[in-house]
Write a structure and sequence with these properties.
Elements: E1 9-10, E2 17-18, E3 31-34, E4 41-45, E5 57-59, H1 85-89, H2 96-108, E6 122-135, H3 139-150, E7 155-158, E8 174-175, E9 178-179, H4 180-192, E10 197-200, E11 203-209, E12 213-219, E13 230-244, H5 266-275, E14 283-287, H6 292-302, E15 306-311
Parallel strand pairs: 6-7, 6-13, 7-10, 14-15
Antiparallel strand pairs: 1-2, 3-4, 3-5, 8-9, 11-12, 12-13
Helix pairs in contact: 3-4, 5-6
Length: 312
């Protein structure tokens, strides 16, 4: 965004142009392949990737250059490509299905490509136990973890981000008279100093199962990844109680062309401006249906970005 890159991918079926839409793990458009060869990781959300020296990321799901995708012709004949059309159209000859039709459809409507070679990186698994598992390290999660830890409970605080604070890092808000980011950093420091607290950053809790068992995947920091250390760790967490503080996902407004590059969630534009000092555009119109739109406008203007309209 800071370098003016708007086109980052193509849609799944019609190969319409796609741009960055969110600022987190809910990103549907900016899917890239990290690495090359056997170490390639397809379908990685670019909005969750930390930059480091030697990072190799390539776009995917296009035939020819990304800016001139030949498969974009699918969009021109969209009325003829209804759901499941291929099961009715490609019926003859029968032996063409596996040899021609299916490979062609898979390539046209596919995403990233997996390497058939063995994965060179190491992966590990582990088991953790706690009295209270707090999922999410935003203001609610940090507060809950701190209260439980001060009461003497064994606490695990898991969050998918590498920086605690959640939306406090994306908005200009204060907590207890100090900037939200400062409060979040101080609270994390207090938690890290407690012997009964374990902080799991870059960790996604993906499932809750019977008997208080949770599944989580920890992504090791880029600078800490070495050939003799794991790239990811699968954790099986057994918790006496759990507190879900995962926040909320912003809902997009529906209008024609809302899938085109340059259309983003307001909260994402706000996050890029406040957290990363990156402007999503030079002149921005904000379309909102609640009071949060005014806060977005104030934050963007404070960052020096021109807001031409607030449509409420």
């Amino acid at each position: 965004l800071a370098n003016g890159v708007r086109l980052v991918g193509r849609s799944f079926k019609y190969h319409r142009p796609r741009g960055i839409f969110t600022a987190g793990s809910e990103e549907p458009n900016a899917l890239v392949t990290l690495g090359t060869g056997a170490a390639a990781l397809p379908n990685t959300r670019a909005t969750t990737v930390e930059l480091d020296d030697g990072l190799d990321a390539t776009s995917q799901n296009h035939l020819g250059p990304l800016g001139f995708d030949l498969l974009a012709a699918n969009d021109l004949v969209a009325p003829f490509l209804s759901a499941g059309f291929y099961y009715k159209t490609f019926m003859w000859p029968k032996y063409f299905w596996e040899r021609l039709y299916e490979p062609a459809i898979r390539r046209a409507a596919g995403l990233g490509v997996l390497s058939p070679d063995p994965e060179p990186r190491l992966y590990d698994k582990g088991y953790l136990h706690c009295d209270i598992l707090v999922i999410g390290a935003g203001p609610a999660g940090l507060t809950a973890a701190l209260a439980a830890a001060r009461a003497g409970a064994r606490v695990i605080l898991a969050d998918e981000d590498f920086l605690p604070g959640g939306r406090l890092n994306a908005e200009r808000r204060t907590v207890g008279g100090e900037a939200g980011q400062v409060w979040a950093a101080a609270t994390r420091g207090e938690l890290a100093a407690m012997p009964n607290v374990r902080l799991l950053s870059r960790t996604t809790v993906f499932g809750a199962y019977d008997h208080g068992i949770f599944g989580a995947v920890e992504q090791i920091a880029p600078g800490a990844c070495t050939p003799d250390k794991p790239h990811q760790i699968l954790w099986r967490i057994t918790a006496g109680q759990s507190i879900l503080c995962s926040g909320a996902t912003e809902r997009a407004l529906v209008f024609p062309g809302n899938d085109r590059p340059g259309v983003m969630l307001a909260g994402a534009v706000q996050a890029y401006a406040n957290r990363w000092a990156a402007a999503a555009g030079k002149r921005i119109a904000v379309f909102a249906n609640n009071s949060g739109g005014a806060q977005v406008v104030r934050d963007l203007e404070a960052a020096g970005i021109e807001v031409v309209a607030l449509i409420d």
